[in-house]
Design brief:
The protein has about 220 residues and is mainly alpha-helical. The chain has nine helices and no strands.
Length: about 220
């Protein structure tokens, strides 16, 4: 008797599944098809994205070679194109190179404007690089008070750019004739174990130079 009940139960279950399939089978097939299409689409996108990055890398290297060869106009144009068309990482790096080439080519205002845009990036490290570039690009001609405003976001105690910013301000003190203050700042930076080694080395060299040359009271900036 148990076999009969089991067969009846299986038949009822089969009929139940058949009714469900007739009712929802098309939806199941459509859902499966969508999953297959989505997976295939993602794989195609990955392949496309990879090819875009490979091409951007090639063009970026070619633009660097133009810059190294002194072909600044061509390099600037190449980086400008990458800044518009390349994936985000390469586009951002291209803007930094484009601004640097503008400075080298004497297009100071355009370079500062581009660095100003980069200083607004959400990535604090990249924004810090841009802000430091702006400060050094203006360090020869801009009053210290204005440089302080430019560097203010980098002056926090936890900022990785704090010591580099202080180096700019020490230079501004020297340029404006505050020799003793500049020497003190350079010596302080040179002795600060938390400062990057490059900042410490440069600050120590400047402090030693100024102490050995007491007649150097200020730096006269070149004409813009």
């Amino acid at each position: 008797m148990s076999d009969i009940f089991r067969e009846v139960e299986e038949e009822v279950r089969r009929e139940h599944y058949q009714k469900l399939w007739k009712k929802y089978g098309n939806y199941a097939i459509a859902g499966a098809a969508l999953i297959v299409i989505a997976v295939a689409g993602y794989q195609l996108w990955q392949a496309w994205d990879r090819s875009q990055r490979v091409e951007a890398s090639r063009q970026f290297h070619a633009a660097e070679q133009l810059a190294d060869a002194g072909r600044l106009t061509e390099a600037e144009n190449a980086f400008a194109k990458l800044a518009q068309d390349a994936p985000e990482g390469y586009a951002t790096l291209s803007k930094f190179h484009q601004a640097a080439i503008m400075l080298a080519a004497g297009k100071r205002d355009q370079a500062l404007a581009l660095y100003g845009q980069l200083a607004q990036l959400k990535d604090p490290n990249l924004a810090g690089v841009a802000r430091m570039r702006v400060a050094w690009a203006q360090a020869e001609y801009t009053p210290r008070q204005q440089l302080e405003k430019i560097l203010a976001p980098l002056m926090g105690s936890g900022s990785p750019w704090r010591h580099a910013a202080l180096e700019v301000l020490a230079y501004a003190d020297l340029r404006e004739g505050r020799r003793e203050i500049a020497v003190q700042q350079y010596e302080k930076l040179a002795a600060d174990t938390k400062a990057p080694q490059g900042v410490r080395d440069r600050s120590n060299a400047m402090a030693e130079f100024l102490k050995a040359n007491p007649s150097v009271n200020a730096i006269t900036p070149p004409q813009p």
